[in-house]
Predict the 3D structure of the following.
Amino acid sequence: MWIPTEHEKYGVVLASFRGTVQHGLPLEIGDTVQILERCEGWYRGFILKNPNFKGIFPTSYIHLKNAHVKNKGQFETVIPVEDSVITEMTSTLRDWGAMWKQLYVKNEGDLFHRLWHVMNEILDLRRQVLVGHLTHDRMRDVKQHITARLDWGNEQLGLDLVPRREFSMVDPDEISVTELYRLMEHRHRKKETPAAASTHHLFVHVKSLMSANLGEELEVFFHIYDGRENRPLSERFFVKLNKSGLPKSPEKTERQCTLFVDLGSSDLRKDVYIVVHIIRIGRMGAGEKKNLCSVQYRRPFGCAVVSIADLLTADSKDDHLLKVYACNTESEWHQIHENLIKKANSRYNLSGSNTGLAVALQLLHGDIEQLRREYMVLFTRGVSITRKLGFSDVIMPGEMRNDLYITLERGEFEKGGKSVARNVEITVYVLDIDGLILKTHVAAGSGEPGGDEYHSLVLYHNNSPRWAEQIKLPIPVDMFRGSHVRFEFRHCSTKDKGEKKLFGYSFVPLMQEDGRTLPDGTHELIIHKCEENTNLADCPRYLKLPFSKVNLPSNNQTLKGTKESFWITSFLCSTKLTQNGDMLDLLKWRAHPERINDSLSKLKEIDGSEIVKFLQDTLDTLFGILDESSQRYGLKVFDSLVHIINLLQDSKFQHFKPVMDTYIESHFAGALSYRDLIKVLKWYVDRIVDAEHQDHIQQVLKASEYIFKYIIQSRRLFSLATGGQNEEEFRVCIHELFMSIRFFLSQENKSTSPVAQTQAVFLRTFPAVYGELLKIFTVREVAGFVRETLGSLPTAVHADCLEAVKLQCIAKTVESQLYTNPESRCILLPVVLRVLQAHMQEQRDLVMCARILTSMLSLIKKEEENGTAEPVVSEEVELIVESLLGVLLRTILEISNRPQPAGPTMRLQFQDVTGEFVACLLALLRQMSDRHYQQLLQAFSSKDNLRDFLLQIFTVFRILIRPEMFSKDWTVMRLVTNNVIITTVLYLSEALRKNFLNDKFDYKVWDSYFYLSVIFINQPCLQLESFSPSKRKRILEKYGDMRVMMGCEIFSMWQNLGEHKLNFIPAMIGPFLEVTLVPQPDLRNVMIPIFHDMMDWEQRRSGNFKQVEAKLIDKLDSLMSEGKGDETYRELFNSIIPLFGPYPSLLKKIERETWRESGISLIATVTRLMERLLDYRDCMKLGEVDGKKIGCTVSLLNFYKTELNKEEMYIRYIHKLYDLHFKAQNYTEASYTLLLYDELLEWSERPLREFLNYPMQSEWQRKEYLHLTIVQNFDRGKCWENGIILCRELADQYESYYDYRNLSKMRMMEASLYDKIMDQQRLEPEFFRVGFYGKKFPFFLRNKEFVCRGHDYERLEAFQQRMLNEFPHAIAMQHVNQPDQTIYQADAQYLQIYAVTPIPESQDVLQRDGVPDNIKSFYKFNHIWRFRYDRPFHKGTKDKENEFKSLWVERTTLTLVQSLPGISRWFEVDKRELVEVSPLENAIEVIENKNLQLRTLITQCQSRQMQNINPLTMCLNGVIDAAVNGGLARYQEAFFVKDYVMNHPEDGEKIGRLRELMFEQAHILEYGLTVHEKFVPQDMRPLHKKLVDQFHLMKSSLGIQEFPAYVRASPVHFTNGSPRTCRNSVPNIISPDGGRGVARRSLPSYPAVNRYSSSSLSSQASNEVSNITGQSESSDEVFNMQPSPSTSSLSSNHSASPNVTSSAPSSARGSPQMAEKHKHSRENACLSPRDRPVSAIFPNPMDPAQRAAPHQIGDATLPRSDPNLSAPDKVRPTPSSWSLDSVKEGAPSFSDSFGKMLCPPVPPRPPYSGSSAKNMRSQSPVSASRSPQKTTVPPFTPSPTECQSTSLVSNSPVLSGSYSSGISSLSRCSVSEASGTELPAGDHPAHPLPPPSTLPNSVSSSSDEPIRRENKTPPPYSVYERNNPRSRPVPLPHSLSIPPQADPPALPPKPHQLRTGSMKLDGTSDPRVPRPRPLPRKVSQL
């Protein structure tokens, strides 16, 4: 039976349990479980981290722990009874564990590893705490370390700041909000700015001296030196080095390491240095021989200097190599360091190039105890302490020190009968009173132990040596009296075995007879002559002699006159001895009573350090004097006492205050002193008002705290001694004293008056007196004193400084012990509140006001916890609310609206005061109960006052909710704030309902209420979904979900509004929508009815949702841009649609069907927008600019334009897109994007408002700026042709305004763009088709296909890799087949990528001769709508012998929604069409393309365009040799055999066509070989000969003896015939007569539909080879070939030659057949587009049967370019601009009508029945599709050449080609058939072109684009479309153009020609072209 557990409530899992039993709960080792029930060895419960899942587990797996249980029962919570630090560690480590793994996933390796180390460290420390073997101090250190690590980790991971007190987390409910704020602020400050340490220490570790010429031992002395005052700051640190330059005692680290302690902040200056002196121990001269003498001397070696300031910047861990300078002149040794500091280095040599002293130097900060804890290793291994000379900045009581420092300065010696100066050495001894040498009391410095004597260094041959050596004499205090120091002088001879001969001595006693020590300073000592050591043994004898020249009696002239002297400087640093006689006189006052007056007067002149040394003795002296003669010395003693008390206020001596306190408590015995002290103090206070000089009185008042301490202690001693006598007298004295004080405080004075300053001094010290008074008086009495004293201050105070001091006094009062007592509080609170209210109303001293208020409210909370009577606390809260709530709200409003101060310190203070006031407000509101709220609301006298209060408090709450109110990691504080807010709002909403509804309705108050509620719910800190489960659980347990509470309150208030709801529509739609979007189901259920209610009321009022829609859209956009929302939002909003059903009551109420429909429609629109916005938001989160971001922005931009018609949003996103492109350096796309905005503007003077980054300006100026920016970007993107258009437009504007300066600049810019087109190289981009399949892609990509323009140099592999990097989770598909539905619906990402080939639109430029490739390259790759991809496959059985028989090609044509390039690098595919090309058709295409390639190469070779003949050689070799696939023979075997002809009767024409092309190829090859022979270099002649031989073999294999007539009819006349022949100087290569005498033939076996060649080989070619070099008039019509999309004349841009005209029947002149073009051979199809040879690219004629169904003709029927042109050949076929859908129903083909006029009838062509491509055939060659013009074309004149020979009229085979091609080329205007072939010679006058109405083909051809883009509403995104071909004039067909002898015709139409329809669609454009949905013109506001 399961029994609920009583004590077994909490445990830790010891071993993992799988939970395989029924109802088993799986457990992991370390999990914590809460136990609910127990049954026979099993527990039932749950894991704390997942409380929803309960189960059973064995008891043996659980280690039980003690725990507290809260809320026993169903919802009980368990808190483990353990150290709170342990609990926090455990929960924090669990939270970190999950995040730590995420760091690994996110590749944040650095933080991952650092956190790992910290987690291990915390676990280790946790073990130490749990074991419980630590000492109290060590436990404290460990906990401090743990909490520091926890805080570090929380900060790094962006977790919350934890408020702590004494390392334990605090519960925010158990402390006041003000205290919580202070704790948070303290931790925050600690984190931000660690307090600067006032004490610093320098650690020095000597490593070695590196020098080449050592060999002697060295002594190294370090000290710190003040370069400003030229004096040492510290004693010396002394290290001995051996002969190798290493420390002599390496095992004793204290001898090589030291700590220079107690450096003040003022010592870390640039002019404070570490000075190093190095002394060598050895021979007198550094170069002396070893055997001269064995005596060793201390001799100068070198010096080094380093500034302490350098250590502050250098890396402290680095070793420093100090440069050592040798002293050349020994006389300067004493000042070598000074010279080095002054940079006078040139006087000294570096003691070696690589000489240096290696030392580790490190500055440490903090007091020495702190360092002992932090640098334990340093102190345990040993380090010597090197002290400052003198006391540190702060003297600590109890510090024992007795050091005498003597510096051997200099000496003056006589020669002593020597010819040279002496080498003087001094030996120093310290002798005691008995004349015995004190052992170990002479120290050269710290580091080495003291010795018995000290030997100075020896300066060579110097009678005036200057040593400047400091020694330290640490003599005990008790040995000072009677001791003296003796200095013995010896001459060190370098001869006579190096003896040291004594010649004199000096001495100095350490203490004078009166007990004073040797005074600090320089002493000139007498040198007594002495040559025998024995003379020195008798100390008493020589001690009677004078020792100093200063002390010599005047009659002792012998010693005074002597020149010999020795100077020393002494300095005593002692805590026990004094050199001050006055101090000694005072302490011995009983011995000399007559000197008391003087001694008391001189006390103020004595140095403070002397007084604090003898503090207790001095105080005993003063009170002894006072007791014995108070009348005589009372005032002086009082003044002396005041001086000493104020001395302890100094920061240097402040640590002696406890010494004085201890003295008062334990040693003070002046039981009668209180009377005198009170009397003198009152005397001073009474004199204040009249006294002229207030300085001394102010000093007295400053000391009042300690004076009162002495008074009170004295009285207590007296009471104890006498049993409480004279109590009343004492009380009267104190009352009188306070009356005097109140009188002087009540005086009104100006702020500058001395009395006002004295009042301020008293107020500063007054609060310190309360504690002393409480020792004798009751709490109420003291509170009365304080109230009356503070109340006596004048109310109208002029002195601002006094007001501030008064406030400080009140602050200290509130913080004092007195105020903590409830009895005193009820007396003091009114005074405090009155002062506070006055200050806060005037906004003065707010920092101090906040401090006071904080203390008051913290105290109330504590009192409440301590169980103080409820009425007392309640009454205090009531008083504070009444006095301060209103003014507190106003203050917060005021300081929040102020601009923040500039300085960082000021800003910090400003934030502090705001935060503190906020904390006070929250604390006050939290203390308020129902009764307080009722009293507050009843207290308002009028509705207006209540209204103002509500508005104020709602506004303040909104301020509190702001994110910047508290730091990001202050979640604890935010949650407390929200808890207080919601509690208060619940109280206030009742007042709102009662007072501001129905007829008293007030919109402003309600609006403020709703707005507050909405932003409350949307706070980030309340979005529990974003928190970790543990954090979410903690918040829900403590506060619940406050969003739901507030949502219910909104709903309740909304229901009360009734008809007033209309006031909030549409204003509240956005805010309520924001609430609806919060992913909290309960909140949504509460809020959605409100949303529907609003729609209902809006429908009733206006009958539609227009306002709702507008608000929704605006709000959604702003929400997403703020980063709100997540994936669930979309589904959430979608869920509103079905909710129109679940509320039938609403529908019934409305009883309108339209309401439901329009509502659902609205929600659907908004949902679609949301999808795009969410995608946009998600993409923008990513780092780099990538295609995803750009594609998403394009999608959103189009949505705003086309579906929502929101112009302003549209323009905003245009600029966002522009910025993305610009950042990614997509300059061309950036231009197109900005052009969208440019399109919306006109050249008008309308003023435009400031918008985005645009200033206020006219529309004209903005458009000009945009034009210039766009031109600049087109220039950067090398899209110069587009820039020219805009330059021209700007130039026209400048010209119209006569702005010739700018016009000139614009023309120059235009010219520069032309130059760039001709001079600069442009890279040809690749295009790639990308399919995005699967549900995991963003909405705008999902299951769509796009064509993307690659980056420069980007090939397929690189592009594929880039896409996979952008979509790292995507899977690349390895095939090109269309995916099936399983892929579409998969929860994954699939990418399908392959290269496609662009099909250019602009054929007129591409097919003209003489147009440079630089120009053509633009038209090949710009303004591309259509792309092609061919996939070869075998249908049926594959013939292994000849695979061509079954090689089919699947051709896919893709049409985009926009042309590339445009506003994006990729556009979606709008239409895809697929055709299959049969093997025969494929063969035709392959040969045809090879013919084209050959022609092009031959032309380039002839026109000298080819630097190298190799490409032609390779091409000829490839065709003639044909070793790979058997060449043409394979085609013969495949298609010319009887079997094939019999089985495929429908392919007869095609077989004929193939045969024709083979003959044509042979003819071209023959001609090519002739050209090749002319240009081939000598070394390649054998290859040429081989080619010729093979060619003859090939001809014979083809069975060609002589070329048929149809081939001979026109020698190689190529597609590039041009009216510009006169501009080309290429010689005529064909024949002397230019091919004009061509016989006309008509072969029925080759109907026109099969005639592809635009210029077949002439049958006379073989005869004319010899004339290759001959000149001809039509030179560039023969072999002047350019890459062209077709070898046929079908291309609309191919021009007819002037010397051939057509009379082919119209029925025989069709368009190229789609199915027979664009085919690959197997070898080509397997290659990537750049690697394939020229392959079939160009559109083929459509079946005439299709003419009746123009609607079936789509994009895919448009001409396509070839993906298979090989890059090395640089022969890019240029797609033609055929329009295959140009003829509308009922409109006869133009070629038909013209054919009937001009040509003899020809039998109609039978349709192809067997072609797989039959559905793709066009009805006529409508070549004008890209250049229709709605105006009449100028008349044209037939070329004179056409009339020179009648044979032209009768025999010309084809308009612009051979008879074999038989297809008329309509040139650009589709009228090349109107060549006048039937006109008589006399009909020279032009036939004007019929007007458009009579030219159906011209008109209908323009329908191509409308059909193709009829559903595309966005504006024209390309400059190309601004220059729409439809609006261009129709150029003349070549066959009708003006003869070359006349003026040259105009250039081909340029991209900038005729702006009528370019920049904006106007009246000249085709009315049938669908235009974008017009935007309402709101640009005036933009």
